[in-house]
Amino acid sequence: MGRVRFDEGVGLGEAAARACGEVAARARPAARAVGRALAADAAFGPLVLGAAAAFGAVAGGDAAWLQARAAARAAGGAALAAASFGASGAGGRRGADAAGSSGGGAGGGRRGAGGGRRRPKPTAELLREMGWLLGIAFRGRGGSRGLALLGAQMLLLLARAQIGVKAAKVNIYYLTKSIAQGSWDYWVKWLFSFGGWTVCGVVVNSGLKYVELALRIHMRRQITRRAHELYLKGGALYSATVLGEGELGSGAGLDQRIAADVDSFCKKTAHLYGHSFKPLLEFVMSLKEASGDLGYARPLCLFAVNGLVSSLLRASGPRVGRMVAREAELEGTFRRAHARLIANSEEVSFLGGQPTERRILDEKMEQLLQAQGSHNLQKIQRNLSDQFIKFFGMLSGGFIIHMPWMMRGQGVPAAERISSFRTAEELMFRCGGSFTEVLMLHTNLAELSGYTSRLYATMRALERLSTLQAGGMGAPVSGGDSGSDGTIVFEDLTVAVPEKDAGPSSPRGGGGSTSSPRLLIRGLNMRVEVGASTLVTGPNGCGKTSLFRVLAGLWPAVSGACARPSEGLMWLPQRPYLVLGTLRDQVAYPTLLGFGGAEDARVEDALRQAGLGKMLDRAAKEQAQRAQSSSRRRRNASGAGDRGAAGAGAGAGAGSGLFSPLSIVHEEWADVLSGGERQRLGFARLFFHRPRFAVLDEATSAINPDEEAALYAGVARMGTTMLSIAHRLELRKFHQRELKVRGDGSGAWELQELR
Predict the structure, then answer these.
(1) Report for 365-374, 586-595, 633-642: range of highest mean pLDDT
(2) Which pLDDT score is estimated for 526?
(3) Are residues 358 and 500 in the same domain?
(4) Is 406 buried (19+), middle (13-18) or exposed (0-12) by CB count in 10 A?
(5) What is the pLDDT of residue 648?
(6) Where do the H-state alpha helices sit in 182-253?
(7) 458 assigned to some structural domain
(8) Do 564 and 433 belong to one domain?
(9) Cα–Cα distance between 558 and 498 in angstroms, integer?
(10) 567-577 pLDDT per residue, tens
């Protein structure tokens, strides 16, 4: 077949000059023609303008909201600034410890939601679970914004579908006719039309991407806030992560489920929403436009055949949802193994356990990669089916769509026949592509089902656990006045080690185990009145700390009751918790003071009473150096300023505000404080808050024996009544009574006066 050259004798400069001249000569009539065509479509103009306005409203609203948040932080968000300053680094052992304590990895082993061995859920059940989760995102506080985003995205989707269909029809018609006839008039019309559609498409597509991301962020914010509200209510956090109650099973990778699974669910859902309505809209609009040349019978017959073939192929394919859930479970287990190693890196290094830990990590990695490799093999069948559907649609379309033009009479001009064919073909290609996307929604929905099942099970378990905690567990724990004088009361209280997952709804409950819980304390009757400090002693594992857990409402009791004051009671565990924030936040916790200096005198006094004066002096030196460095940077940036004045300003800044010693922030306080310093910081909290009652659980175990007496003496001097666990008999002189727990399995105890 010979080849025709159309560019012989035509230089690039000559072609460009000719094109510019033709455009200039025909620009006005072409613009009028395109304008009349757009004006004839009553829906197009308002739709595109409405979509652009929706995009602008969403983006402008977000910008105003972010600006307001920034102003709020600058005005009064010092505590948040302190927390975010310390949260950026990973090397915190306690943060890793929190992740490592989630025992059971993501998905909770075989009991995890959406586990790999479960049967796929029916579509109705999956949609019910999705509806429940989306109800959290679009109802209640902040839900109206989500509904507005859904409306804006729907408007943008309508505009995008309209632009795509109209552009395909008009542009191809003009271009084909201009080439077939060699007509500059049609070519200039094509150029103006294409430019107009391009501008509209750029705006609408950018708006769609922005709104989809905004919708994802909104859903994640709403669902994550709800999860935080549920598992940080009362004792639900302790029950979920330590006791392993309900379906969560010792945390069950709760960190991954809230941090990763929520984000994956929101990402997939926002994507599915946009990519489900778009092909449906384009399919309907393209079919309507093409029906003028083809009618409705031929295209609908084509799509019916393709849909039947697709359904038959997919019915025999693998279940993608189970694969996604299984991979997410193994990803969480692998990440938890790393987090656990980081949390215990010092102990592993002392014991020389690196080779063993490496084998454990390699094993977890191999489990994950083997599952991914197996799933990849199973997906070959799915990919083959998808590709076959794609090319089968093109082949069947050739028979159904090409025939009308092959059979048309010779009376139709060639240019007209070619233009109408190319227009209808492009519309049918777009229609077929949209139909294929609709069929592919099943795959996206299957992938989403894995995250939906896991997240739904997690949120439901947190709801049940939060309700259980609100209703009380085991022995009732009163948070009222507990008497006319606000005493701590134990009435016929029996304490035993709680059985994990022993409830009837638990996979391990309901008659699976016949062993009884280990008895710790039986029938305790005791009142801790103001001024009657009590020392709790006994062998390790006898139930001393367990008694405090029951008093706090963290553990259920077998029988009896206990009561505690709702105010004026402070707990001091053996390992004090260190919050993300400033040094003054560590002392004032659970109150966060941030960078405000109103309570600095009390904070410093509490630190020095706890024996942390040297740490305060060290912080002052560090902050002074930071103030000087900051002043030097500002001076170099401005290029002006006196060195002496800058030094004086740095000295003034080091004593207050951001550069106060109490404003120092560490990425992880547990990494810079020794065990003894952490326990002294706990006593500094006691001295700062000055509660009526203090519950101390071996609060001086890491402090030198010759120094702990001064701390107890300070607590006694400020009039705080102590309920203490301690092994050193020298501390008896700071208590009026001693509760001895035998720890022999009988639950026996003895209460005696010390003076």
Answers:
(1) 586-595
(2) 94
(3) no
(4) exposed
(5) 42
(6) 184-231, 236-238
(7) yes
(8) no
(9) 9
(10) 889 999 988 88
